[in-house]
Amino acid sequence: MKKVSFAVALLLLAGCSVTREATVSSMDAPGGIVRLEAGQAMLQDTRYDEYVTHGTATRACQSMGYSTATSYGEPVTTCTLFSGSLCMNEKITLQYKCSWSVAPASAPAAY
Question: Which residues form the signal peptide (predicted)?
């Protein structure tokens, strides 16, 4: 009986933390903003790999003519599916600000 309850507890805990890959949801070229989204089901703790999401945002920025992306603001969580008063699915939005990398200016020569 202890083995069965341990196995059930292990399965329940294994489903609590899920790594998701965020995908580009919108791009604003004039403002230089890229938004990435990842879905999250009820009772799940969605995590995302910072390295992968930064690379995805940087590629999106480069497609708009910028050179790099920087994390901008906090993740925004929005409920996408209600069942009564419970939220069954959530959407996590990550924002990145695009910028240009500028080479440092050399100091003027003193005469």
Answer: 1-22
Rg (C-alpha) for the chain, rounded Å, is 21
- Number of domains composing the chain: 1
Range of 21's domain?
17-99
Please check whether residue 58 lies inside any domain of the structure. yes
pTM of the full structure: 0.71
Q: Is 111 within the bounds of a domain?
A: no
Which amino acid, one-letter code, is at 26? S
Burial string for 38-77 (b: 16+ CB within 10 Å, else e) reads bbbeeeeebebeeeebbebbbebbeeeebeebeeeeeeee
Among 24, 10, 92, 89, which Cα is nearest to 56's? 24
